[in-house]
Write a structure and sequence with these properties.
Strand content of chain B: 15-25%
Number of strands of chain A: 0
Oligomer: heterodimer
Distance between the termini of chain A: 51 Å
Radius of gyration of chain B: 32 Å
Number of helices of chain A: 3
Radius of gyration of chain A: 18 Å
Number of domains of chain B: 5
Chain lengths: ~60, ~725
């Protein structure tokens, strides 16, 4: 039964991490444009893919 | 994936310069290349700090310094790159985001809680049959409580809030039994956990919330998508006005900012931005969206013009007079307001069900408690059984029955180009038995086409088309199009003079050529709509008609075959309306109908017991659209009509009207089937619960089982073969 003492907290922690990850993804706009993200991934244009100075709150359209 | 990871928002600290985020609707973004060129176009502009296109919503948000680049600069740059765009109202965007972002995190939390509690519960259920220690079981129950209490408190809020609001106004809605069931189940389980009993329902309560939240979130998402699409359609039409300042300089402002007394310039081909009076200029005004009349009206100084009409001829200067009480717009607005209030009394299917259901559930629970007390059971036991009844009856299947079907129906319609805007629109559409069409722009395409009667003089058409290319008058544009459709190349002639109200004139190689009205060309009192005349030759007439949509008569006859009463109400002239009605096979038609008469006709039909579907696109249809039992509008409609309609359909055909009705009816019968499933489920499990045979395991299984069944049934709508059922039959 001592196994439970660390198994349960471990299970809950993992679950919490999953939930926290989901909430973070949601807040930061990862689900805002599912179609567009696919296109961006195959785009060769570096201007779009890595142009950090241009990034801004525009992400959460 | 790296692009996706790249998406997170980096918030810059506001700098000394003023920056603002504007959202543009760009409906033509369809692929990765569009994203790239739209973003790159915007980023090269001065003052643009960031631009990000969203392919799903077809919008671009731009962070820009308004002093360096105005929104007009942004839209013109995009227009030049081939992407027509429009500025969206600020509040639209934030309101949508707030509503969706409220539900989705709750789904996540409820899902996390449901999964973990279920893990613990399954061990308890299987442990009870074997060798689980009672102290371990107690630990598991306390752990469940620890997860369930905050989860219910957070994830249940939308239901609790809606239930409280309903109770405050002395109504019952579906959220009342849901909230009561969830709260009682949680509270009772906590009490039983303290007493170390085994009637623990945390899993049932949290799973219930999880399923219901999924249903709501999907519903909300679909509606947000529809609303966004509708706003995008309208956004493109939200026009700017060219303001004429007192020092004769011009400035482009948003039409919403127009105030009475301002003077605006309206160029040829432009839409008039506000109601007003012409102070100078002479032109013809296309009022088809206002009155249904297809023939342009000649206007000059002193005449009034209405917002939404198109200036076909010369440039005009208009003094804005709107905001006064007696304008056409405010009159229409008053009629619509009154009509919408009467429609607001419609009670949705789910709420009608819950009016019967909620009292029944509470009476059953109370009866269980009282009867068990009477036959001498201890009060805790009687209360446990009563709560088991409430949990079992908690309308998981019932509350999912309608939203699940609606989401399936709306997404199927969306893929066909029909945007359902009103939340209860589908339910009202399912009850329709009478369809009233407007003529211009609804039954017909609203575009002028060369009449097919008689032979066409192609040489004259080529020449006339070339000259007409210089003008934006609807007949001139129709001539150009007709020439193109006949396969004639008609290069535009330069050096054409336009005489407002009469026609066009040009001289090439010493020969004078004219295109325009019969009087202008010198054709006496010719009957054709537009004439071409070259000096020394007899004039040639071209007759243009506003033809019915290609499938109009097929759609009308399909509606009639299925038992719908079909009629036409139009503001256009008698002969034009009669011609269209006959072409489409409609017997009941009325012409030269004013907006208030349209409204009265619809009300008269209502009084006779008909549930009328109004299909229309003009300002003159707006009151009728608002008063009909349900209403549809083509995407080409004026914005007021689109706002009043329950759904908007896109494309050249009338077929979406039939599809909308068929899907609405199928959705209704599926919703009723789902209610039947819920009733069967209840009639099996409620007696068990009242007799005290329901254990937490049975409750959890029954609840998930019925939810899954109802959802699966609703999803059938996605692949169902559809036909328009006869009136009075239920598929």
């Amino acid at each position: 039964m001592t196994a439970l003492a660390w198994l349960i907290p471990a299970a809950l922690t993992l679950g919490m991490m999953g939930l926290a990850g989901f909430l973070w993804a949601l807040r930061s706009g990862q689900f805002d444009d599912l179609e567009g993200a696919g296109w961006r991934a195959i785009s060769d244009d570096n201007d779009v893919a890595d142009a950090p100075p241009h990034r801004g709150p525009a992400g959460d359209a | 994936m790296e692009a996706a990871l790249d998406a997170p928002v980096v918030t810059h600290e506001p700098k000394a310069t003023s920056r603002q985020t504007v959202v543009l609707s760009v409906p033509t973004i369809v692929c990765g290349n569009c994203i790239r060129s739209v973003e790159n176009t915007l980023r090269t502009l001065r003052g643009v700090e960031a631009a990000r296109a969203n392919l799903t919503t077809k919008r671009v948000s731009v962070v820009v310094d308004p002093e360096l680049s105005s929104t007009v600069d942004l839209t013109t740059a995009l227009e030049r790159a081939g992407y027509p765009s429009a500025l969206l109202a600020d509040d639209a965007e934030t309101e949508q985001k707030a509503r969706v972002s409220e539900l989705v995190p709750r789904v996540g939390v409820a899902g996390f809680a449901a999964a973990n509690i279920m893990l613990l519960s399954v061990s308890v259920w299987s442990g009870q049959a074997s060798d689980m220690d009672s102290s371990v079981r107690e630990l598991f129950h306390w752990l469940s409580a620890l997860i369930a209490l905050p989860a219910v408190g957070y994830a249940g809020q939308p239901f609790f809030r809606s239930a409280i609001a309903a109770l405050k106004s002395r109504r019952l809605n579906m959220d009342v039994p849901i909230s009561l069931g969830v709260l009682l189940a949680t509270g009772m389980s906590l009490f039983q956990t303290m007493r170390n009993s085994d009637q623990i329902y945390f899993d049932a309560a949290v799973t219930l919330l999880f399923f219901l939240l999924i249903g709501r979130a999907l519903d909300e998402r679909m509606r947000t998508k529809a609303r966004g699409a509708a706003e995008n359609l309208l956004g493109l039409r939200a026009k700017n006005a060219t303001l004429l300042e007192s020092d004769q300089t011009t400035k482009v402002i948003s039409a919403a900012k127009l105030k009475p007394g301002m003077i605006i310039a309206v160029a040829a081909g432009e839409r008039v931005a506000g109601d007003g009076e012409i102070i100078s200029g002479q032109s013809e005004i296309d009022e088809s969206l206002i009155s249904g009349e297809t023939r342009p009206r000649a206007v000059s100084a002193g005449d009034s013009v209405y917002a939404g009409t198109v200036n076909c001829g010369g440039a005009l200067r208009v003094r804005i007079t709107a905001a006064e009480e007696n304008t056409l717009l405010s009159e229409i607005g008053r009629m619509m307001l009154a009509a919408e209030q009467s429609r607001g009394r419609y009670v949705r299917l789910a709420d009608r069900a819950s009016r019967l259901y909620a009292p029944a559930v509470h009476v059953l629970g109370l009866t269980t408690f009282v009867v068990w007390m009477l036959i001498g059971a201890p009060w805790e036991q009687a209360l446990t059984y009563a709560i088991a009844v409430l949990i079992i009856t908690c309308p998981c299947a019932l509350a999912l029955a309608v939203p699940a079907v609606q989401v399936a129906a709306m997404s199927r319609l969306f893929s066909k180009g029909v945007i359902v805007k009103a939340p209860d629109g589908l339910e009202r559409l399912a009850e329709i038995d009478c369809v009233v069409f407007d003529k211009t722009g609804t039954l017909t395409t609203g575009e002028l086409r060369l009449g097919t009667s008689g032979s066409i003089d192609t040489v004259a058409l080529a020449r006339a088309g070339s000259i007409a290319g210089a003008s934006r008058h609807p007949y001139a544009q129709a001539l150009v199009k007709a020439a193109r459709e006949q396969g004639i190349r008609a290069p535009t002639v330069d050096d054409v003079q336009e005489v407002a109200g009469s026609g066009l004139i040009t001289t090439s190689a010493g020969v004078e050529e004219k295109v325009g009205s019969a009087a202008w060309v010198g054709a006496g009192d010719g009957q054709a709509s537009i004439w071409y005349g070259a000096a020394g030759k007899p004039p040639v007439g071209f007759d243009f008609v506003d033809e019915p949509r290609k499938d109009a008569s097929a759609c009308v006859s399909e509606l009639q075959r299925s038992g719908y009463m079909v009629s036409v109400l139009s503001g256009d002239r008698r002969d034009a309306v009669e011609q269209t009605a006959v072409a489409c096979g409609i017997e009941g038609w009325a012409a030269e109908v004013r907006p208030d008469q349209k409204l009265q006709t619809i009300e008269a039909l209502k009084a006779q017991g008909y549930k009328t579907l109004m299909v229309g696109d003009g300002l003159n249809d707006a009151p009728a659209l608002a008063t009909g039992h349900a209403s549809l509008s083509p995407a080409s409609a004026i914005d007021i009509a689109q706002n009043a309609a329950d759904a908007v359909f896109q494309g050249e055909l009338l077929q979406p009207v039939i599809e909308t009705l068929a899907i609405a009816k199928a959705a209704r019968s599926l919703a009723l089937q789902n209610f039947a499933i819920a009733i069967v489920y209840n009639s099996v499990f409620v007696p068990l619960a009242m007799l005290g045979y329901v254990t937490p395991l049975i409750a959890a299984l029954a609840m998930s089982g019925s939810s899954i069944m109802v959802t699966a049934n609703a999803l059938r709508l996605r692949s169902m073969k559809l036909h328009l059922p006869m009136i009075g039959t239920s598929q």
